[in-house]
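Tokens for chain A. Residues wanted.
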């Protein structure tokens, strides 16, 4: 499944992995990194929330240690995302401009799917999409996994879960992702949906095919 619209490429390619926790984003990100490096590309891998002070506040909330309303959490994500893009030392924007491919584990799509389910989605989307500091990805790869399967994978992997990691909230997030994707395709986003329940190597091949198609590699 895909949602496609034309988008002018950056000097480096900006690729985002999205999906429910447990979908295999980290694994597929590393496999793609290796594939791109093998093709002679310079690659920088990153993730959100970042390791900044604001990112720490976000992780504290996601763990349930410091509850925040959806509006405050969405605003924190935006502030963290602006620095992630535009910080003159740690931001990835300078790397894209210098020709390095950037692969991110999560981006604003997550905010739309999770915080957008708990407050005004139009407000969350508008403050991100109208922010001049935020780069638009060349490609978003959504690893699609059934929420019940996601919960099972999460439970096997660690003892503590975050506030959104239950079947009900993951189901709501998955539904919201697909509604958001339809809206974003009309705004120039390129999104590929890949079955994350397939064999790891099969998923990696599907990811690589999408990257080659969309990013012209």
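Reply:
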């Amino acid at each position: 499944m895909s949602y496609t619209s034309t988008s002018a490429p950056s000097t480096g390619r900006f690729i985002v992995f999205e999906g429910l926790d447990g979908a295999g984003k980290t694994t597929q990100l590393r496999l793609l990194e290796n594939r791109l490096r093998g093709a002679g590309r310079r690659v920088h891998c990153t993730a959100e929330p970042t390791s900044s002070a604001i990112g720490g506040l976000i992780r504290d909330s996601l763990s349930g240690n410091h509850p925040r309303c959806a509006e405050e959490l969405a605003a924190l994500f935006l502030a963290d995302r602006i620095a992630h893009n535009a910080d003159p030392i740690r931001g990835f924007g300078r790397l894209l401009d210098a020709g390095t491919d950037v692969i991110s584990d999560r981006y604003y799509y997550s905010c739309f799917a999770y915080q957008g389910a708990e407050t005004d989605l139009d407000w969350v989307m508008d403050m991100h999409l109208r922010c001049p500091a935020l780069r638009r990805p060349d490609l978003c790869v959504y690893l699609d996994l059934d929420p019940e399967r996601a919960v099972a994978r999460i439970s096997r992997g660690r003892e503590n879960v975050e506030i959104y990691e239950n079947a009900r909230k993951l189901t709501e997030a998955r539904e919201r992702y697909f509604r958001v994707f339809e809206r974003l395709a009309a705004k120039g986003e390129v999104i590929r949906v890949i079955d994350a329940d397939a064999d790891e190597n099969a998923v990696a091949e599907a990811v690589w095919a999408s990257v080659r198609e969309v990013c012209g590699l």
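The beta strands are 2-3, 14-19, 43-47, 101-105, 139-144, 191-195. The chain has one domain: 2-215.
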